Amino acid sequence: MFGPSSFVLFLKQTLSCTLTTFLVCFLFRTQITAVPSCPSCFADPFIAKRVLRDSRSSGASVRHIASMDESKGKTEVMNYTAEDLTPSGGFSTKLKRRNKIKSNFERTFPRKRAIQRRIAKDRFPDHAPVFEGSIQKHDTGASEINPKNVRTEFHQAKLEMKKKKFLERIQQTARAEILNSEDAGYLVTDDGELSYTIRQKDICASVDMASATKRRIAKDRFPDHAPVFEGSIQKHDTGASEINPKNVRTEFHQAKLEMKKKKFLERIQQTARAEILNSEDAGYLVTDDGELSYTIRQKDICASVDMASATKHFDLDLERFGPYRIDYTLNGRHLLIGGKRGHVAAFDWLTKSLHNETNVMEGVRDVQWLHVETMYAVAQKRWTYIYDNMGVELHCLKMLHDIKRMEFLPRHFLLVAGSNTSFLSYLDVSIGKLVQSFATRQGALDVMTQNPSNAIIHTGHGNGTVQLWSPNIREPLVKMLAHKSSVRGIAVEGNYMATTGLDRRLRIWDVRNYKQLFVYVLPFGLSEVAFSQRYTIACAVGNSVQVFTDAHLGTAREPYLVHNCRGIVSDLRFCPFEDVLGVGHQGGFTSLLVPGCGEANFNALHANPYESKSQRKEREVKQLLDKIQPELITLDTSEIAQVNTSLMEQENERLKNVLYVRPRDVKFTPKHKKKGRSGALKKEQRKQGVQAEMRFAVNEERKRAESELFGSYKPKTDDKPKSVLDRFKRKDA
Fold first, then answer.
1. Where are the chain's structural domains?
2. How far apart are CA 211 and CA 188, in angstroms?
3. Does domain 297-620 fall into CATH 3.30.1490.270?
4. What one-character DSSP code corresponds to residue 107?
5. How far apart are CA 606 and CA 616, in angstroms?
6. pLDDT band, very low/low/confident/very high, at 86 (cuts 50, 70, 90)
7. Are 498 and 531 in contact (CB under 8 A)?
8. CB–CB of 459/418 below 8 Å?
9. pLDDT band at residue 731, thresholds of 50, 70 and 90?
10. Under 8 Å CB-to-CB from 219, ≥6 apart: which residues?
11. Where are the alpha helices (DSSP H) in 472-612?
């Protein structure tokens, strides 16, 4: 039974537990469904401890919330079930161990402190100062922007904001330099030690491996461009150095022409300097001490070179159809041969692939490639024919009959033919028109060649003279006595011309002043001669071929190479961009290796030995667009850029005659018509009408002549705009 005191104590504990429960639920936002009595509260009534049990289901999980000592200000939340309680209502030992609860229900966990981040006040609220020199270093002109120079306030504000952004960007760039972690190196010496006594090996031993392996680059003693050889500049100069801007009237066009001339000269220098980068070198022949180079045979050369070069020497045994005339294409890739008895063949001599082979069943006197390797001309006994690379006849040129020699001018598309009747003919193969044909009156033209630099034709004659021809003049431009006997061979390369004659002389000439430079005496039977791209000269002496180097310099004392053929040599041609000499003779054709005779580097834009079919088509179109007219063929190539004063004077005289010649009377007799249309009035009207038309044509021609001679006349007009009321003004006002 409970007494009054027990009841009071019970009531006090119950109220205390209830208030504590509501307080904890308020703090933890917990909804209370049932608040039963806490059995632990009866266990020890003197401990300031309150427990809340929330029975979610009968005998199920119970949440126990205990309030610790009020002096410590702790709160604990535990989960437990009915199995964790003892029969007396207390906590089991297992639960106490799991939750680290002592006998007085005080949980041992560390004190939770509210960690607040203390933000200290910045002692330097502004940005770090930037070095003024660094700002000036990165300033690209933003500080000089003045917004007041703009008229409107809107654009002033806009420009002010833009200037501010530019200045901020400059400051950020200058401030970012502080983050550069790399410092300059320094040298620390001991007390009393002089820094200049320290050697490089001591420094390398004291620094890291990467710094020790760095290469010291000395200051360039030649900071400018390397000088260019003057001859190389003249080689690539196409006339830019002769441009004179002072010949132009206005200052504007003078400055414009000066800039254009400067660009041309820079382009020429760059092209000449780029030749240093050419990795290909010319071949050469090295002999042992006391050994003569002309004793070396072709089999010895083939045994000493690589396999690809050794295959360039071959021999075609064609005794039944010889002697042979030969010709190489401009890029040196294709070969054309023609035998005297009608055999004609075209093939790629590098890969030995045959394009076509035919017998024209008529005597062949000469063969010549045209602008592409798909067409070639054959001078047969009667007429001249053009075939394609499959051997199909394209044209029969009956205007070129009884032809002995042919040459093709690739920049002018002209096929030049010398006949047995001393006629020299020029045929334009692009339009099929005969440009010029005239008689030289020097007998059969069986010795002929061209000068590649100016397209002038050189012919040799039986009286020992050499004549130079152009399609614009029927008389020879130059006529010089080269030999005392008949001329048998002519070859031209650059500024040098080589001639051979029956007097056993090989003469070297300068075509700029037509003077003899050197003369060499060779064995009897001297006939054909050929010039290579590197001024190597090959001469045909009977059935042998003798090759000379530096003959144009006068230093040749003996042959460079000698080769004997199986028959009389009939033609000699050096292959472009190859150390190969083609020999046509009585027994067929022979390809000889001559080290150092060919140009090692080629310009693929003009002559590409490895061009494809599409590149060949494109090159043909470019050649047709860049075609030079026959009227521009002259001895001096610089005359193209000059004014033809004589022709201009003739034209001026013609215009003056048109102005001052009285127009002739028009005589016209009207035709008789029927049905009353032939009366006197009708006839006179028709007569006056025809006369008026002819006078109008004469007057128009006179006006045109006046405008060309004196310039067009334009009356002066006022700058004021016209008005509708101008019609009422006086005419004399």
1. 4-99, 132-175, 230-276, 297-620, 645-710
2. 17
3. no
4. B
5. 11
6. low
7. yes
8. yes
9. low
10. none
11. none
